[in-house]
Amino acid sequence: VRIVVAGFGRVGRTFVSHLLDREEQLRLESGVALRLVAVATSRSTWLPPEHAEPAPLRAAIAAERFQRLPGRHEEWNAEEAIRHVEADLLVEATGGDPRHGEPATTNVRAALEHGLHVVAASKGAFVHGRSMHDLAARRGLQLRVGAAAGAALPTIDLARYALAGTRIESVEGILNGTSNYILGAMAASGSAFADALHDAQVIGAAEPNPELDVDGVDTACKLVIIANAVLGADIGLDDVPVHGISGLEPEDLERAAARGRTIRLLGTLRRGGSGWQARVEPTPLPLAHPLASVSGFEKGISYTSDLMDRVTAIGGRSDPNGAAAALTRDILNLVAVLPEGLSSPAPL
Ligand code: HSE
Q1: Each residue of 222-243: pLDDT tens digit?
Q2: Closest ligand 1 atom to 206 CA
Q3: 176 lines ligand 1 (CB under 6 A)
Q4: 149-183, pLDDT tens digit by residue?
């Protein structure tokens, strides 16, 4: 699988680093050879020479930039790399505010138009309706967004595989590790919001703009991505009322605890007469609720369906390792369902 990586931020670098460490093991265990053919940012592209030594790339990952590597193509940004490099799959891991959708949307569209399958850790291309999924379906290409919707927590795969054939009626999720950690730290010690947020930034769980975490936007993005990917919805961020945790005080958490409840930033999806209704808000959960035990940077999702009732998954802490591993997982699962391996897509 010839891979173009768009984005050399924490997730993109960690993905490339995993590839260096595990390429051989993955090939032996899964029979899939993953090969990096380009790493691109909004400014330039690096094309690994044949049989490149791993040491310079490891140094570039440590330095957080590939500007000194031989084989750089100054003129190409990610979109141009996608259009020019012979490849099978795009790993979309650019940063950028998901509310604006760029550069991720341009990159994903270019990849699908150009015949590449896509796995994404960025959210921007999937939070304004389901058009990328429709384009992928028309092209006969695979588009996997699990790394953007909880990453190591298998939100999408649980719905797609474990609940296949049921009618999902509602979804509840603690989908943002950073705010869950902050709430836990505040409840345990009354510790200041800012200290807990700083911890989240140090381990790489928080977004580059951490307001997206604490204001609930990141949770809303994940809800929308899940709804559009596996619930047949066609919704966008504008459809989701969002309340974050920044207004909460330790006393609010204490009062909830005195009533046997724990306040969590909960995202919910409910099937209504006119489609899926989504919302995000701090919610006092009874301690017996399956998501009440989600701790620290972990997350959780609970689906209720007509035939299997409630099914819950918990864990998958938010950090760059989990996000990068989710990209690899999605690539391996994507390749496994291709009927004839990596064949040509349908014409546009
Ligand atoms: N910032 C997110 C979190 C991880 O804290 O869960 C990326 O979606």
Answers
A1: 999 999 999 999 999 999 999 9
A2: 1
A3: yes
A4: 999 999 999 999 999 999 999 999 999 999 999 99
The pTM is what?
0.95
The DSSP 8-state label assigned to residue 289 in this structure reads S
Instruction: Name the catalytic one among 117, 222, 279, 317.
Output: 222
Please count the residues of the chain: 348
Alpha-carbon gap, residue 87 to 34, rounded angstroms: 11
Asked whether 319 lines ligand 1 (CB < 6 A), one says no
How far is 169 from 7, CA to CA, in rounded Å?
A: 36
| First vs last C-alpha separation in the chain | 22
Residues 243, 240: Cα–Cα separation, whole Å: 10
| Alpha-carbon span 170 to 269, nearest angstrom | 5
Q: What was the pLDDT predicted at 118?
A: 98
Active-site annotation holds for 222: yes
* Ligand 1 neighbourhood includes 206 CB (under 6 angstroms): yes
Q: Which residue bears the tokens 């304004």?
A: 128
